[in-house]
Each structure stands twice: as C-alpha cells, then as structure tokens.
From TrEMBL, chain A:
Record protein name field: Cell shape-determining protein MreC
Cited Pfam families: MreC (PF04085)
Domain called Rod shape-determining protein MreC beta-barrel core: residue spans: 132-271
Keyword Cell cycle set for record: no
UniProt-listed Gene3D superfamilies: Rod shape-determining protein MreC, domain 1, Rod shape-determining protein MreC, domain 2
Known role: Involved in formation and maintenance of cell shape.
Entries under PANTHER family matching the protein: CELL SHAPE-DETERMINING PROTEIN MREC (PTHR34138:SF1)
Organism, as annotated: Roseospirillum parvum
Key word Transferase present: no
InterPro entries in alphabetical order: Cell/Rod_1, Cell/Rod_MreC_2, MreC, MreC_beta-barrel_core
Keywords, alphabetical: Cell shape, Coiled coil
TrEMBL record, chain B:
Topology in membrane: Multi-pass membrane protein
Gene Ontology terms: biological process: regulation of cell shape
Protein name in UniProt: Rod shape-determining protein MreD
Similarity comment: Belongs to the MreD family.
Keyword Transmembrane helix: yes
Matches recorded under InterPro entries: Cell_shape_determining_MreD (IPR007227)
Gene Ontology cellular-component annotations: plasma membrane
Cellular localisation: Cell membrane
Listed transmembrane segments: 78-98, 110-127, 147-166
Amino acid sequence: MKPPSGQITRISTLRALAQRSMFILLVLSAFGLMLLGKADTVVIERARTLVADSVAPVLEALSRPAATVADFVRNTRELVELREENARLRQENDRLLKWQSAALNLESENDRLKDLLRFRPDPGTRGITARVIADSGAAYVHSLLLNAGASDGVSKGQAVVAGGGLVGRVTEVGRRAARVLLITDINSRIPVFVGDRRLRAMLVGENRDRARLIYLNGPGQPGLGERVVTSGHAGALPPGIPVGVVTAVDEKSVVVEPYVQRHRLEYVRVIDYRLPGLGTGAP
Amino acid sequence: MSLARLSLGQRTSQFLRRQVPVALAVLLLVLAQVPTQVPGLVEVAPMLGLICVYYWAIYRPDLFGAASAFALGLLDDILSGAPLGSGALALLLAHGVISRQRTLFHAKPFAVTWPVFAVVAAGAYLVRWLGAGLVRGAVLPAEPVVVGWLMTVAAYPLLGWLLASLNGTVVKDDID
C-alpha cells in the first residue's frame, strides 16, 4: 500500500529538519571542542591519547615500509654522490680526529678540576629509543607521534633528542604512543645558552623551519654561527643538549636553525632526566 | 526488489559497498600520517579527506553524511595533533555548503566541479587556519596553508577520478 502523498511530504520535511538540526549540533560540537581544547583540559588529552594509542599499531606497521622506500630513494641518491662524499668525509675525519684528541685532553682536565671543586655531577640519564610513526598537520602544529608511551617509561615533559640535537618535548603520553612538540612549534619555549659567552635566552618556535631567540640576557648580540644549547633552567630539560646554530641576527630578532631536520627523523631518544634530590632540599 | 527479498550474501555485499566511501577516506587519512622523509612535504601535504567529503557530498550524500565529515575531521585533528575541532569544523562546513547545493553540481562536467572544489577548499583551509590559530592563540604562518591548498586542488583530478570510477562500480546499490 502506498502512503498518501501528504504523508510523504511530511516525512521528508521532518527528515530535512532532523538533518539540519544534526548539522547545527555538529557545528556547535566542533566549536565546543575548540573551546575545550583552549582550556587545555585533561579530558581532551585523555581522548587524544586513547585514539592515538589505538591507531599506533596501524601507524607503526605502515611507517616501516614507508621508511624502507625512503631509505631506498636516499641510498640511490647517495650512490651517485659517493666519490665526492668520500673525499669530504675523509677531510672531515682528519678534522674530527684532531677534535677528538682535544676533547680527550679537556675531559681529563675537566675531571681533575671537578675533583678539586667537589663538583656535584649531573644525574645519569636514561634513554628510551622510539620510532616516529606519524608526522602530519605541520601547517597547524609541529609535532610527531612516537611508538613509545607510559608503558615504556615515557612521561610528560621529557626531552626528545636525535643524532644532531634536541627534537622537542613530550606533551601527551598514552600507554604505547606519545606526542612530541617540536622546538619549532609556535607554542614551544626552551631556555637556552648561546655561544661561548653563554648568553641566556629563550628559544621560541614559529611553526616554521627555523626558531627565534627572545629575552636575550647578557652583553651584546650573539654572533652568526654561534651554537645554541639547552641551559637546563626550570629543570625540565637536561643542560647542554645541542639545539641549533644562529643563522641570522638583526635588530629585531635572532634566528636559529635547529640541528635536527624534521624530515630526517626516523628514530629518536626520549631522555629520562630527573634533577638529583628534587624535593629533598637540593639547591 | 525490496530489501527483505535479498539473500544474506547480497545484503552483506550491499552493506560493505555502502561503507566504501567513508572507509576509503579513513584509509587515506591514516596513510597521510605516515612519515615520508621528503623534505618540506609535511607542511604542505594535501588534505585528501576534503576531496572525499566534496565528491561524496555531491554524488552520494546518503553514504557520506555530515556526521562522517565531522568524524573524519576529528580523526585528522587527533592523529596530526592539530587543535581539536578545527579540522572537524572545516570538513563539516564544506560538507554543509556542498550538500545544500549539490543539485547545482550534480552531473556537471569536470571543468565546473574542479574550480568549485578550489573555492570550497579555500574556504575549508581558511576555517581550519583561523580555528587552529584561535585555539593556539597565535597567528599561524599562512604560506604552508596556501601551498597546502594548491596541493589539494592539484590532487583533486587524480583522486576525484579514482572516486568517480568507484562510484557506480564498487559503490552501487543492488536495490533501489
């Protein structure tokens, strides 16, 4: 039996109405989520880590073949430049050997001096090696997802480093995945020392490849090519991790190019660093 | 033929076919998270989910509703670490605009749907950029967004063609 046409019109009107209110509800939810995110609540973080945790195994499985393909492309490219590369490396090796002997001398001298001063050594740090399993959305946030989480000993605030230097800090931790906020992210703030004069400054990201120094504290401006290392202030990060090098200085800003190139990251180390005797009357 | 007269196998096949649009969009989204190690790509990677939302909102809004667009955007926000709700809002609004005007673009040639997509994509990118900037409390650099938009517009012909070839072959109804 066919329903009368009036009934059909009524049903379709009702359906359109339901669809419209659903749409409005969803728009409001999106705004609600953005507001909640701004308030930085634990609920949002819990939800994010829950989803990240459940997708992590899939991403991990996918990232391996992707890395293999990328390696293959890189190897082929490197093969072409092998001869030049070899010559360059030989030169660099000579130079590094000289530095090595200088470093060994300095190390023994440093040990003797520390001994004289009864220097309290920095705590030993433990590293957790993790793979980068997701890297996207860089127009809005500079962050990475790692395949290590709370069950591997990762916790919030830990420093993440790769061969060349500091990558960023752990901001969200799930059971088996963790999110790292890169030093180039617009919300990243890292206390640093600049150059041999150890000028104090704050390294701020700008969501670009390079970062900037603010609150420069000390005599004069840093020079081009000066090294930037973590200062360890605020106790969040171990001191002395290489961060980058000053590449431009003008009246308004000092630009730092990080040692770590985002696209080259495959494995990183999460550093478990705890200040000695924190909370037990340490200075 | 009514639904009740279909065999179990037909009904299962029918059910699976109807999940293809959303499933494919989720698959593309997850694939897009994988690190590529190509310098500079991650800042400007195309928003493939937007192409899926646009295409299905015109041709099969019954299989890809506003809720799916919202969920897809939300998943993108969560996996990429972008401010929660910004991607969801962008895809949802794009879906809303297109599904209301779909009769205008339905059965229109590529020469019409592509430029329209470029406009819709520009709107979606703007919404996401503004939303993300508001939540993060900063003016985010605009260049990656502009280049990302261009990449998305450039990716439309290929992915749009793929979706069009699925529509009517894999994605089809056995019953009316």
